[in-house]
Amino acid sequence: MNISDISEKTTLHNNIQMPYLGLGVYKSKDGQEVEKAIASAFDNGYRLIDTASYYNNEEGVGNAIKNSSIPREEIFVTTKVWNDDHGYENTLKAFEISLNKLQLDYIDLYMIHWPMPDLYIETWKAMETLYKTGKVKAIGVCNCMPHHIETLVKECSIKPMVLQNEFHPRLVQEDILDFCKLHNIQMQAWSPLMRGRILDNETLQEIGKKYNKSTAQIILRWNLQKGICTIPKSVHENRIIENASVFDFELTPLEINTINRLDTNERTGAHPDHFIEHFKQKEAKSKS
């Protein structure tokens, strides 16, 4: 897929358009840090900002959007409902809190952050309500396997427009990509740079030398040519600019396949079927 400009968008199955490249703000501190990062992103052509209630920076995101001269309809805002807020009524309340913090009249994409067992169906039905009332333009899920989505499709009336999963050269998941293509669900990558763990990979570095590009730029270009939206995170202007400088070259099919073969099924985060145990262990470590 040849995407040649940062302004290019994918069309979701409900005909809403979403930018291929955006700025993720996970771990960006609320206030000046996240506001400055978003202002820099806007200055360099970004129009998609991905946050979540769990990130505790929605207010800063809202301030950055409010202080921008860019028309609201040109900005695509994603936020997510956290695990503690699952359930029909809880989700509706959590949404209103996020909407108020963001100081917006609507959210472009509202997502389930993780599929809480026994609750994510009820949560999805609340999101369908928000979608039908026009408070959100699109709804999606994060950190899901095909069986989670199949259950949603069976039990609910609207299938997800977007699936946001961990995705990078060590975790390619072609089966999930095939599933998304079959069901016309847009794949979006979080942690596309594997939290920096793959930036010293020799194969990627060699490809980078050919194009005079960094390893990060090679990975992001690979994402885009596979038709995957991507949201690299950074609070540093030079990195934000670098991550957007991926539209002046094109990888060959052989190079795409070479990067595909780096897959080792390695994760930096939790597996969608075992995330509760992951977060319990994480919480226990923070208390020790």
From TrEMBL:
GO terms for molecular function: oxidoreductase activity, acting on the CH-OH group of donors, NAD or NADP as acceptor. Substrate binds at H113. It comes from the Bacteria. The active site is at Y55. Keywords: NADP, Oxidoreductase. Residues 26-262 form the NADP-dependent oxidoreductase domain. It holds the Pfam family Aldo_ket_red. Coiled coil: none annotated. The record marks K80 as: Lowers pKa of active site Tyr. InterPro entries: AKR (IPR020471), Aldo/ket_reductase_CS (IPR018170), NAD(P)_OxRdtase_dom_sf (IPR036812), NADP_OxRdtase_dom (IPR023210). Belongs to the aldo/keto reductase family. This is Aldo/keto reductase.
